[in-house]
Amino acid sequence: MVYDCAIVGGGPAGLNAALVLGRARRTVALFDNNQPRNSVTHASHGYLTRDGVTPSEFRRIAYEEVLRYPSVKHHAPKVTDIHKLHDGFEIITDNDKPIQSCKLLVATGLKDILPHIPGLTELYGKSLFYCPYCDGWELRDQPLIVLSEYPSVYHMTKLLYNWSRDLFICTNGRSILSDEQKQILNSRNIIVSEQTVAAFHGSEDKLQQVEFTDGSRIDRTGGFITPQWQPQAAFQKLGFKINETGGIVTDTLGKSTIPGLFAAGEATTGVPSQLIVAAAAGSIAATSINMELMEGDF
């Protein structure tokens, strides 16, 4: 059997694309090995009718809805390779037979690369986060640390100021803020430090103190950090173009530079997005895929 479309990635972009294509009566092979990036967090926010849903519950509901459509098939094995064929694609997995499809949607998202700081992994997604829009409300009015080694920390700080006025900014040994930026932040009683963080201390998933390499500590109950993000799309031999952040270059409909290959969600941007934004991108790409399949029918 040759599927109309293979979708690699079962996050909100891939799942919403599968839903749209299933409702369009297209045959879909949905590859998802259940390793979502947001699995570390306690809840997801900003998605209308699903605000505060746990990642596991979101996936449960999504799969319940998507698999109502008999033309959508879930494949759990990990995709290890993809070959471009003359008239489609061949998807290779680690323990299944190759599957062929006419179209391909890459919705593999991102992987967080966290700084190597003791205690960070245990607290990440619980009291240390990266997105103020996703978790700022839950940390409102608390004493927060903002840890970033990138110049964007200035923008992040200004953004967080609306959620909490008790902010401690740490650049982890980097000199990335200008004197003018430091003065502006200091004028609002925002502390800026270039010290290096030695460890995060807490219990029961709650941050309590931040320790620096000089031995000093500050009390904090939460905060925001800026990880590095690594695109999980490891199929560049297909020949698609990537942008400066590692995302797959597409047009506004999700079409890549390779005929028949589409991408959606964080796989196209190389930076994180909210669930609702990724889901919308999956829907747009799915309608574009269906239009191409429709034209091929006539």
UniProtKB/TrEMBL annotation:
InterPro entries per the UniProt record, alphabetical: FAD/NAD-bd_sf (IPR036188), FAD/NAD-binding_dom (IPR023753), Ferredoxin-NADP_redctase_2 (IPR050097)
The FAD/NAD(P)-binding domain, residue ranges: 3-144, 177-282
Record Pfam families: Pyr_redox_2
GO molecular function: oxidoreductase activity
Keywords: Flavoprotein, Oxidoreductase
Cofactor: FAD
Signal sequence bounds: none
Superkingdom: Bacteria
Quaternary context: Homodimer.
Name of the protein in its database record: Pyridine nucleotide-disulfide oxidoreductase
Species assigned in the record: Paenibacillus ferrarius
Lineage of source species: Bacteria, Bacillati, Bacillota, Bacilli, Bacillales
